[in-house]
Design brief:
about 475 residues, alpha+beta, about 35% helix, binds iron/sulfur cluster
Length: about 475
Amino acid sequence: MSGIFGAVSKGDCSEMVFYGTDYHSHLGTEYGGMAVLGENFSRQIHNISESQFKSKFYEDSRAMRGNKGIGVISALEEQPIYLKSKFGPFCVVTNGFIENADELASELLKKGASFSEVSKSGVNATELVAKIITEGHDIIDGIERLFDRIEGSCSLLLLNKDGVYAARDRFGYTPLVVGKRDDAWAATSETSAFLNANFRIVKYLEPGEIALLDEDGMVQKKAGGATNQICAFLWIYTGFPASSYEGIGVEAVRERCGKALARHDKDIEVDVISGVPDSGVGHALGYAQESKKPYRRPLVKYTPGYGRSYTPPSQERRDLIATMKLIPIKDVIEGNRIVVCEDSIVRGTQLKNFTIKKLWECGAKEIHIRPACPPLMFPCLFNLSTRSINELAARRAIRSLEGHDLEDVSDYTDHNSSRYRKMVDWIAKDLEVTTLRYLNVDDMVKAIGLPKEKLCLYCWTGECPKKASCHHKAKDKEPARV
Ligand code: SF4
């Protein structure tokens, strides 16, 4: 997953884009990029895997001059891509994952196109996006063609002399939100980037919607469609607590998840409610409110320099971060029966080796693990979040119980079935915890507050939203200025 931010201002916007982009640092750890357009384009890309965006871009941003700009924190490839085209020069940043990137790149190569940027996984997907856009009659047509041709998910910001074009992924898996203040307009993946910069939210762009931000406001260039399958994981894990998507705040959802977990725990006596920092904390606060038991911190995170342990690409690096960043507080742990809220369990190995182990070693009397979503059964369709299917704790449990993996796991996704209970017991034993209870999918959907059909729940249910929505086309409407 990546985070994108763009702004158009009456004055210079370089500092605004710098801070706005930096507020997406929790979403990626590979590359950062900024492009600002004044008299000319200035663009910088840095590898941020070993240092933070802020330190790498501070000097660059001070040297950039212009009233429109875009930035990105990228989990995969180098961005922004700069291209001279028949529409004039432009820069583009993207957030998403294009499943058929190789196929589309081959088609373009056959037509005589060439690619200059090569990412670790092959063609740079943002360059591919830029090249497909240039096949259109104009920029809007180019973005429409892109949305028609890609399989997967792609939201983007495109910077040129007109301003910043903001286009949200046609199925809405990733968010894109427009905001304004007196002297500027901006678009962001995370609304938390707006708060300290005094932007107020004007519009959560609809799936497939394309808008142009310029000095005078926002012009809707293409209306969005009714289909929306926004990633439910944004609220559970990946999103920043101060953000909101579709008007629904992340922290409030996490608290509701925690409350729902607590309502299923009337039969256990505990002393301390806690959450694995950072995303487990909101869930734990909700649990503590509902159970009327104290929220305490058996584990604190040493923040400086440590990002999220899921973003670095190598497992070795993820494990190193996981073990280094959480420090136990023995006074809070010793002799206590502790509830530990966690956003989710992917492999379970970090939770076991770096969290549970520390709690037992510090004298915990009981450990009750409470993930704020159901067992993960499938890796993300768009590479937005979880990892390969074989790694998932639930799949390991199924292989152990059945002797092999199953094609149809519906019995295991039904939280009322005996197979589900056996699977959860297996994972609890493997984690070496007193009890393990997951939030069920209905409670999770209720906590988010959107209708089930408006959410992507593929990671848990295996129901493929693309089947229902892949022929969706955005509705045509007259352009409207906001
Ligand atoms: S597959 Fe999972 S992580 Fe990917 S968009 Fe859907 S819910 Fe989100």
